[in-house]
Specification:
Layout lengths: L6 H15 L8 H23 L4 H20 L6 H32 L4
Length: 118
């Protein structure tokens, strides 16, 4: 697995970017703006780290968790009734979590192949 080639991490990063930028064109509450911005930026950071350090399973798990947190953030922040913000969080979060979950097994396999034998 080489650096900067995993499409799953690019997709997760784009989901984070979309969630963070969507605060400008969707109807927001103070909690939705904060949660979408925080989880969006954290997804971007996790994606960049995953792209630069392939085969690091804990980063994949963290990225998947961030996607799940973005997905559940409308209920955490009580903005599930703000259609644009809620749907953006649900869709971006489930896509980010789904593509990252698909990338966990290959990351673990790469990690095991690169571990030195004792």
């Amino acid at each position: 697995m080489t650096k900067w080639t995993r499409w799953e991490d690019y997709v997760a990063g784009l989901c984070g970017l979309y969630a963070a930028l969507a605060i400008f064109w969707t109807n927001q509450t103070s909690s939705s703006k904060s949660l979408m911005l925080i989880f969006g930026i954290l997804l971007i950071v996790a994606a960049v780290l995953n792209l630069s350090m392939p085969g690091t399973p804990w980063l994949e798990y963290a990225q998947c968790a961030l996607g799940i947190l973005l997905f559940i953030s409308p209920w955490m922040g009580a903005y599930y009734d703000h259609t644009g913000a809620a749907w953006t969080s649900w869709i971006a979060g489930i896509i980010a979590a789904g593509v990252t979950a698909a990338a966990i097994k290959p990351a673990i396999d790469t990690h095991h192949r690169t571990m030195p034998s004792h």
